[in-house]
C-alpha cells in the first residue's frame, strides 16, 4: 500500500469512527481521543488529518450530503411524479438513519447543536431544500390541491420525518420494524386518504 493510500484509509477510518460515536453518543460526549481510539489511530495521526472535532463534524456532514445527492441523482434517471420522489426520499432518509452513521450523526448534531452553531445543520438544510423542491414540483404539476400552501405541505413532511426520528431515538415509542417501514405505513395512510371519496354537501343530514 502506498503512503497516499494509507493516508486515505486512515482518514476514512477516522470519519467512520467519528460518525459512529456522534450518532451513538452525541456531540458533547464524543472526544478527539475517543475518535482516535475507536479508529485505532494515534492521537498524532488524528491531528494530522483533522485539527478539531468541529472539522470532523463538518466532514461527516459533507459525506452524509453526498449520500443524499447520490440518491437524488438516481431518482432523476427514472421519471416519477414529484410526490412519489418525495415519498421515496423520506423513506430513504429513515433507512439511512437506521443504517448509515454519517446521516444519523448529522441529524443528531442538528438536533443537539443546531441552535448553537449553523455549521451543524448543513446536512439537514440540504435535505430540507430537496423536500422544498419536490413539494414545489408537486404543486406546479397539479399533484396537490391548488389551495395547499407550499410551506404547510413542506412542514408536514419535515415534522413527520424529524418527529419520527426523535420519538424513536428517545425511545418514547418503538417502531414496527425499521424507520423506513414505519414511515411507509404513514405514507400509505396519506395515499388512502387522498383516494377516499369526499363527502358531498349535506351527506348524512
TrEMBL record:
Gene3D superfamilies the record matches: Tetracycline Repressor, domain 2 (1.10.357.10)
Instruction: Give start and end of each HTH tetR-type domain.
Output: 8-68
Q: Which GO terms describe its molecular function?
A: DNA-binding transcription factor activity; transcription cis-regulatory region binding
Q: Which residues bind DNA?
A: 31-50
Q: Which UniProt keywords apply?
A: DNA-binding, Transcription, Transcription regulation
The domain of life is Bacteria
A Pfam short name: TetR_N
> Protein name, please?
ScbR family autoregulator-binding transcription factor
This protein's species is Amycolatopsis mongoliensis
Amino acid at each position: 500500500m502506498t503512503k497516499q493510500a494509507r493516508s486515505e484509509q486512515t482518514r476514512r477510518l477516522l470519519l467512520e469512527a467519528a460518525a459512529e460515536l456522534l450518532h451513538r453518543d452525541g456531540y458533547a460526549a464524543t472526544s478527539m481521543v475517543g475518535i482516535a481510539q475507536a479508529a485505532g489511530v494515534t492521537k498524532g495521526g488524528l491531528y494530522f488529518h483533522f485539527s478539531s472535532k468541529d472539522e470532523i463534524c463538518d466532514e461527516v456532514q459533507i459525506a452524509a450530503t453526498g449520500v443524499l445527492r447520490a440518491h437524488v441523482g438516481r431518482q432523476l434517471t427514472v421519471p416519477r411524479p414529484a410526490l412519489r420522489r418525495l415519498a421515496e426520499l423520506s423513506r430513504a432518509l429513515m433507512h439511512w438513519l437506521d443504517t448509515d452513521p454519517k446521516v444519523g450523526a448529522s441529524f443528531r448534531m442538528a438536533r443537539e447543536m443546531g441552535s448553537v452553531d449553523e455549521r451543524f445543520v448543513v446536512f439537514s438544510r440540504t435535505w430540507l431544500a430537496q423536500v422544498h423542491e419536490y413539494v414545489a414540483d408537486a404543486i406546479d404539476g397539479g399533484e396537490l390541491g391548488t389551495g395547499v400552501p407550499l410551506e404547510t405541505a413542506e412542514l408536514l413532511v419535515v415534522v413527520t420525518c424529524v418527529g419520527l426520528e426523535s420519538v424513536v431515538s428517545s425511545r418514547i415509542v418503538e417502531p414496527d420494524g425499521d424507520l423506513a417501514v414505519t414511515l411507509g405505513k404513514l405514507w400509505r395512510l396519506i395515499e388512502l386518504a387522498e383516494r377516499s371519496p369526499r363527502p358531498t354537501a349535506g351527506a348524512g343530514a
